[in-house]
Predict the structure of hydroxyacylglutathione hydrolase.
Amino acid sequence: MKIHHVPCLEDNYSYLIIDESTKEAAVVDPVEPEKVLEVAQQQGALIKLVLTTHHHWDHAGGNEKLKQIVPGIKVYGGSKDNVKGCTDSVENGDKISLGADVNILALHTPCHTKGHISYYVNSKEGEDPAVFTGDTLFIAGCGKFFEGTAEQMYQSLCVTLGSLPKPTRVYCGHEYTVKNLQFALTIEPENVKIQQKLSWAQQQHQAGLPTIPSTIEDELETNPFIRVDLPEIQEKVSSQSAVDALREIRHRKDNWRG
């Protein structure tokens, strides 16, 4: 499979996932349909389905328009989210296939929204899988707890996503990486991996290049929100448990003016 990122709005990402043998494609969160269709055209790909991570307009806001442009297109979204234009609702564990070789697994990752879905995608052997995490897991960050609790975000981040194979490529919904890593250093100033990744991310940013994808392995080394099981992280934020640490780190990020 081939994955193309499509920058949208100010800092959003849509993604085109192409099954190389059939040229059939899925698009993740196509908020600006024309941009995604242009990339599909350049690649000679035919968009067959939409994977919506959650109901917020900057992710689901292009679904209706894309349905008008591509009649009969399937639009997937979480059953507990009121996703605009949804034709097929998905629950945790539902499977979707694309073309000949691409398999998509819906993972319910609630908290940012009640019905938020992350899509775990794999293809032929020898290719690293990918996960499209919307606004649940960002590079070195996580989404705000708009419709859920720290307990839910812990389950979504640290259990569901954190247990995916370490080489899994992470494609998130926004380009927030530099700010996230700057904040991560306020929690772990001595973490060399965070320092190195921040320096790299700043270079990417200056060159106008994206910082996606990350990997699950990378996140486990540099993302304070997914590292809350570590006693040293809990200690740094004076917390007695992983969930308490996650709640405290989110609270600090919400009030951080970096």
Summary: The mean pLDDT is 97.
